[in-house]
Amino acid sequence: MERTERMIRGYYRNKKRLNTSLQKLEVQKERIEQIRRDIKECNISLDTTISSIDYSVDRVQGSTVISAIERELERNIDMLIRELERAIRYKITLEYRIKRKEEQLMNLEVILRGLDQEERKLLELLYKDKKTYRQIEHELHMTRSTISRRKKEILTSLAEIL
């Protein structure tokens, strides 16, 4: 029965983590779109202290054909591209974790759907919301002994299935 309780606690804990991962994934997708927009629209602020051409001194052109502004622009675009690559890698990692968590939760979720609504509600209050017996008494209009008996019955039936 303790094993079953651990599994149910783990189920609700993993379900909460899954929701957190889904929210992180949405934020990551928005971040990727923002970086892509920045690259596409060339939304980059260049350093204003870049030196310009000094006409007071005669100079012979060296080997560089690219101006300082072009180098700065290229450097900033490269940074954005690297940031985009990191963001996409993190998004793929999140998607993999979400898929793995969903697969882990699927078996127990099917079994819990077999319970009636009152039994699921009792398990949610006990293990998901972590409410005390007194809080559950008020919410479900049951006595403490009824709650304990129902909990034991549910865990016993789940232990047989698992």
TrEMBL record:
InterPro entries: RNA_pol_sigma70_r4, RNA_pol_sigma_r3/r4-like, WH-like_DNA-bd_sf. Residues 112-158 form the RNA polymerase sigma-70 region domain. GO terms for biological process: DNA-templated transcription initiation. Residues 8-45, 70-118 form a coiled coil. Keywords: Coiled coil. GO terms for molecular function: DNA-binding transcription factor activity. Gene3D superfamilies: Winged helix-like DNA-binding domain superfamily/Winged helix DNA-binding domain. It comes from the Bacteria. Pfam families: Sigma70_r4 (PF04545). This is Na+/phosphate symporter.
